[in-house]
Amino acid sequence: MTLSTADIRRKFIEYFSRNGHQAVASSSLVPADDPTLLFTNAGMNQFKDVFLGSEKRSYTRAVSSQRCVRAGGKHNDLENVGYTARHHTFFEMLGNFSFGDYFKQEAIQFAWSFLTEELKLPKDKLLVTVYAEDDEAFDIWENQIGVPKEKIIRIATSDNFWSMGDTGPCGPCSEIFYDHGEHIWGGPPGTSEEDGDRFIEIWNLVFMQFNRQADGTMEPLPKPSIDTGMGLERISAIMQHVHSNYEIDLFDNLIKAAATIVGTEDLSNKSLRVIADHIRSCAFLVCDGVMPSNEGRGYVLRRIIRRAVRHGYQLGASDIFFYKLVEALIKEMGEAYPELKDQKPVIEKVLRVEEEQFSKTLSRGMNILNEALEALEGTVIPGELVFKLYDTYGFPTDLTADVAREHDYTIDEDGFQAAMQAQRKRAQEASQFGADYNDTLRVEQETAFTGYDKGEQESNVV
Ligand code: ATP
Ligand code: MG
Ligand code: MG
Ligand code: MG
């Protein structure tokens, strides 16, 4: 069976609706009333208060396809884009939720039946993990579902134990993996080669079972709940018989559009994948009201745009190009997300203006960086240079690090921070004489982006 990405999204919602779940629309990428969370990064975010019991809904089962961004804060997959087959900055998370309704057994059964009956995935390609101590989940997989013992892997790390924070709801997880075949490097979860892309995690089932107290004790929740998340692009890859998310219908079209716009014929170029990924996060972030700026969410957006622009430059784009991809994106995703169509003029304008601004300094900055790389002894780019590129040419540090990585170099983070401190000190001293350095200072303070890191909710699993 081959299914389009749009078909899978639809099938998922239909399947769970048929099974008593309320279909709930994706919430914004900017979390409502939650300043501790950088961007919506999981389907459960919009239900946080329902899980905590402080908000009541008219339903106890829900299903959604949630737009997510993981490009900063605790969950940062920005660096993975272009390097793994399975990570995006923007992706959609399909999820089914039980608010004190069904629990472990039904959650496992729903997931298994969706994959093997609705999508007809071959059972022998699937393997699962459970939390090391979760005998109950192990037993359900083995005896009720019939997964052979050797394909149920016990994991003792936090990868298989989810918690919302230091206290509050938490519980074990069970993850479902798909084996893409021996020809791809990687080992099953729990082995030293698990970071490879042979066994790809597709679905995470979280069993919210305990309420962790301040003293660490685990009280059983009176009404345990379920939170699950499956990456739409990852399941699409499987259903379209390709290995990488970047080969699915949606990305294939975006990559071709990007190639035409920047004027390259090398469709396998990594930079095209980066651009196709970044147009999704950037367009959706602007659509949800984020504007490029020097602080907070806006600075993360600015960094992603500049990164995409640099990759276009790398491919030889001779003109402002990034905004032109909005049209292709709307073709792929406008039906599922009509707001993208409504906001088209705004999105295009914001991306165009940001690129125009950055392109003024990009090529000079790149020349300086390339010359420095040629003259460099060792493999670490000095912090002073990273700072100069940042301060004078508008290169966010991750952009310089991205270029460095392409040459197997790294950047000197500590040296960069020291250069930044020195500048701050100079600015403070100068301010005694009434000089105005405020603009510069704001940019500097944002670079490390620690603001959201500290208190960000622990929604790392789904
Ligand atoms: P991985 O270990 O592959 O990074 P994860 O454990 O961080 O995934 P979860 O937090 O469990 O992912 O999210 C639930 C599901 O969302 C995953 O099983 C996966 O299918 C999907 N997913 C997570 N991160 C990404 C991403 N950056 N791009 C695409 N899909 C993702
Ligand atoms: Mg991850
Ligand atoms: Mg994982
Ligand atoms: Mg996971």
From TrEMBL:
It is an enzyme of class 6 (ligase). It comes from the Bacteria. It is found in: Cytoplasm. The keyword Acetylation does not apply. GO terms for biological process: alanyl-tRNA aminoacylation; negative regulation of DNA-templated transcription. GO terms for cellular component: cytosol. It catalyses: tRNA(Ala) + L-alanine + ATP = L-alanyl-tRNA(Ala) + AMP + diphosphate. GO terms for molecular function: alanine-tRNA ligase activity; aminoacyl-tRNA deacylase activity; ATP binding; tRNA binding; zinc ion binding. Its cofactor is Zn(2+). Keywords: Aminoacyl-tRNA synthetase, ATP-binding, Coiled coil, Cytoplasm, Ligase, Metal-binding, Nucleotide-binding, Protein biosynthesis, RNA-binding, tRNA-binding, Zinc. Its EC number is 6.1.1.7. Binds 1 zinc ion per subunit. Residues 3-462 form the Alanyl-transfer RNA synthetases family profile domain. Catalyzes the attachment of alanine to tRNA(Ala) in a two-step reaction: alanine is first activated by ATP to form Ala-AMP and then transferred to the acceptor end of tRNA(Ala). Also edits incorrectly charged Ser-tRNA(Ala) and Gly-tRNA(Ala) via its editing domain. Consists of three domains; the N-terminal catalytic domain, the editing domain and the C-terminal C-Ala domain. The editing domain removes incorrectly charged amino acids, while the C-Ala domain, along with tRNA(Ala), serves as a bridge to cooperatively bring together the editing and aminoacylation centers thus stimulating deacylation of misacylated tRNAs. Belongs to the class-II aminoacyl-tRNA synthetase family. This is Alanine--tRNA ligase. It comes from Marisediminitalea aggregata.
